[in-house]
Design a protein that fits this description.
The structure is a single chain. The protein is 37% helix and 27% strand. The protein contains 13 helices and 13 strands. The chain has helices spanning 10-23, 35-42, 48-51, 76-82, 98-113, 154-162, 182-196, 208-222, 235-245, 274-277, 288-296, 318-332, 348-356; strands spanning 2-7, 55-62, 65-74, 86-94, 119-122, 135-138, 165-176, 199-202, 254-259, 262-271, 301-309, 337-344, 360-371. Strands 1, 2, 3, 4, 5, 6, 7, 8, 9, 10, 11, 12 and 13 form a 13-stranded mixed sheet that branches. It starts with a strand and ends with a strand.
Length: 372
C-alpha cells in the first residue's frame, strides 16, 4: 500500500536525499551527489529558487520504504516578471511503478491548485541554476557530465502517460578537444576580433565583484524577453551562484568578452567533477577529501554550461571567439573533451556556435508542462 507524506523536518529531508542510492544501486552510470551539500541546498542555503516562493517536499512510501520523491513549488519572481500563474516540480525520482509516479504528480498538482496556480513545468533546477534540469530522454550510454540530470528511460513514459507535454528540449553537445582545427579558428577569430574591436579576457578572481557585475550587465542585455522560462538573475543570485561554484572553478575555463571596457559576452566552463564525485559515494568526510584532492588532478573533461552575448555583438563571431579561447586553453591543460550544455532548443545562436566548434549533439533533456 502506498502512503504519501509531506516532509517537514531534517530527518525527512535526509530520506528524500538518500532515496537515489537505492534506486541506482545497480546502475554504473549514476553519479552520487554530495549529501551534505544537497541538504544545505534543500534547506534554502544560498538557494535563490526556494527563496522565491513557497515549496514542499513529498515522499511516497511502500510498506514503510521510500519509493518516490518530488519537490514542488512556486517561483514568485518568475511569475511576477512573466505575468504567469505557474508552479514547478524538481528532483523527481521513482521506482519503475507508474502508481508511484502518479501519486507524486497528483500530490504536486493538488498542492499547486490549492494555491491558485494554473500550470506546472518541470523538472526544473532545484536552485534556479543550470543543475538537474529536465529528464534525460536521449543518450543513456554513459555517466552525466557535471550538474546534468540522469535518470532511467521509463521516466519519460511516466510524464507523458500522466498528461505532461513537452515544454522544451535542452541539448548537450560533445566536443572532442583534440580535434579542434586551431589554425583555421585562429585566422577566423583573429580577423573578427580586429574587425569588431573586442577582446577575450580570462576570468580574474582578484576582481571578483567586477566580474560578477559585468556578467550581470551581459545577462540583462542578452537574455531574450521572449524566453518564458528565464528572467535575468539579480546580483545577489549571481553572487550566490559564484559562492557555490568558486571552489570548483578553473579560471582557464571562464572568459568575458569586452569591447574596450564594456562587457559584451561571457562563457562559464567547469571541470567535470562528476569524474571525482563518482568515487566519493556522496561523502567528503572522513576520507572523501583525500580522494577529492587526488582525483581532481586527473579530470579529463569539462562542461561549458553558460554562454551569452549582447545583441549588438551577435553574428560577429564573439561566441566562436570565446569557445575557441576556451578550447585552446583546455587542450593545453590536458582536457580531452568538453560538453556544451544544456542549450535550449530555441537558442539557435548558441547551437550554431557549439556546432561550429565541432560539437556533436549526443544527449537531450526534456522539460515538461501541464495545465492544471
Amino acid at each position: 500500500m502506498l502512503q504519501i507524506k509531506e516532509i517537514q523536518d531534517v530527518k525527512g529531508l535526509k530520506q528524500f536525499i538518500n532515496l537515489p542510492w537505492e534506486l541506482y544501486k545497480n546502475d554504473p552510470h549514476w553519479v552520487p551527489p554530495l549529501r551534505r551539500q544537497l541538504l544545505r541546498t534543500l534547506q534554502g542555503k544560498n538557494n535563490p529558487l526556494l527563496d522565491n516562493g513557497d515549496h514542499a517536499f513529498f515522499l511516497v512510501f511502500e510498506d514503510g520504504n521510500p519509493v518516490g520523491r518530488v519537490l514542488v513549488g512556486v517561483n514568485e519572481k518568475l511569475n511576477r516578471e512573466k505575468t504567469k500563474k505557474e508552479g514547478y516540480i524538481s528532483l523527481f525520482e521513482a521506482i519503475d511503478d507508474q502508481k508511484v509516479a502518479f501519486a507524486l504528480f497528483e500530490a504536486a498538482t493538488t498542492w499547486l491548485r490549492q494555491r491558485g496556480l494554473t500550470s506546472v513545468v518541470g523538472p526544473v533546477s532545484p536552485t534556479n541554476g543550470d543543475d538537474s534540469r529536465g529528464i534525460l530522454v536521449q543518450g543513456f550510454d554513459g555517466p552525466p557530465v557535471l550538474m546534468n540530470s540522469y535518470n532511467p528511460p521509463y521516466y519519460q513514459r511516466f510524464f507523458e502517460n500522466y498528461g505532461f507535454g513537452k515544454n522544451m528540449d535542452l541539448f548537450a553537445f560533445y566536443l572532442d578537444v583534440n580535434r579542434l582545427d586551431e589554425p583555421r579558428f585562429d585566422r577566423v577569430v583573429s580577423y573578427a576580433m580586429r574587425k569588431y574591436r573586442f577582446q577575450i579576457d580570462r576570468f580574474d578572481r582578484r576582481q571578483l565583484e567586477r566580474e560578477i557585475r559585468d556578467i550581470k550587465t551581459i545577462l540583462d542585455l542578452a537574455m531574450p524577453a521572449t524566453w518564458e522560462h528565464l528572467t535575468p538573475p539579480s546580483l545577489e543570485e549571481i553572487r550566490a551562484e559564484f559562492r557555490s561554484l568558486i571552489q570548483f572553478m578553473d579560471p582557464d575555463l571562464v572568459y568575458i568578452a569586452r569591447s574596450g571596457a564594456d562587457p559584451i559576452g561571457f562563457v562559464v566552463g567547469l571541470p567535470d567533477y562528476n569524474q571525482v564525485l563518482k568515487r566519493l559515494n556522496g561523502r567528503l568526510f572522513p576520507f572523501g577529501w583525500a580522494k577529492f584532492l587526488w582525483f581532481r588532478r586527473r579530470i579529463t573533461g569539462a562542461r561549458v554550461f553558460i554562454q551569452f552575448v549582447v545583441p549588438k555583438f551577435r553574428n560577429k563571431a564573439v561566441n566562436s571567439a570565446i569557445y575557441h579561447r576556451l578550447m585552446v586553453e583546455a587542450r593545453k591543460k590536458g582536457y580531452s573533451y568538453g560538453e556544451g550544455s544544456a542549450i535550449a532548443e530555441m537558442n539557435k545562436e548558441s547551437i550554431r556556435s557549439v556546432e561550429g566548434a565541432g560539437g556533436r549533439l549526443y544527449r537531450v533533456y526534456r522539460i515538461y508542462r501541464k495545465e492544471l
